[in-house]
Amino acid sequence: MKSETLFLSVNYMDRLLSLIDMERDKLQLVGITSILVASKHEELAPQSVHNLVIMTDNSYQHKQVLDMERELLTALDYSLTALTPLRALEMLRLQAVEDGIFPSDADDAVFTVGGQSIVVGEIVAMSSFLLELSLLEFAEVR
Q1: CATH code, domain with 8
Q2: Least enclosed by CB within 10 Å: which of 26, 46, 88, 100?
């Protein structure tokens, strides 16, 4: 699964839970359904319902996932495109290239700050890592 799929599924889940009340025992179902929809939106080979059901140790049935998918899409009014933190990072990187802060958009490009050489790819990788870590920090959720 691509990182963008993860961030998009968190976005779908967050938006859905802000719109409707969900029973605690359905949260895992909402999670795998969000992954399903996000992977259909982002991936060339999206997750299968069968694999997602197996991930839940068969806690849900195929039909329950499809019913929740319909509920999620209806609640979100089929508005699936969202600006995720990872997309924002990519936009900032491209802007840094355009503004001349980064010498090029190649990951192996090197630029100098305060006498130290820094590889663009390392900055992007570290930033992506920190964004993924922020998903684990409840204090960062607002």
Answers
A1: 1.10.472.10
A2: 100
Q: Which residue segment(s) compose the domain that 42 sits in?
A: 3-75
Identify residue 47 by its one-letter amino acid code: Q
Evaluate if residue 140 carries a pLDDT over 60: no
| Number of other CB atoms surrounding residue 40 within 10 Å | 13
pLDDT, tens digit, for every residue of 81-99? 888 888 898 888 888 888 8
Q: How many domains does one find in the chain?
A: 2
Tokens matching residue 48: 């299968």
For tokens 């490009």, the residue is: 109
Six-digit token string for 73: 């899409």
DSSP assignment string, 6-41:
HHHHHHHHHHHHHHS---GGGHHHHHHHHHHHHHHH
For residue 88, what are its two tokens?
């924002």
Question: What tokens were used for 34?
Answer: 């969000």
Residues 21 and 59 in one domain: yes
| Cβ-count burial 113-126 (b if 16+ within 10 Å, e if not) | eeeeeeebeebbee
Residues 7 and 71 in one domain: yes
**CA-to-CA distance for 56 and 47, rounded, in angstroms?**
14
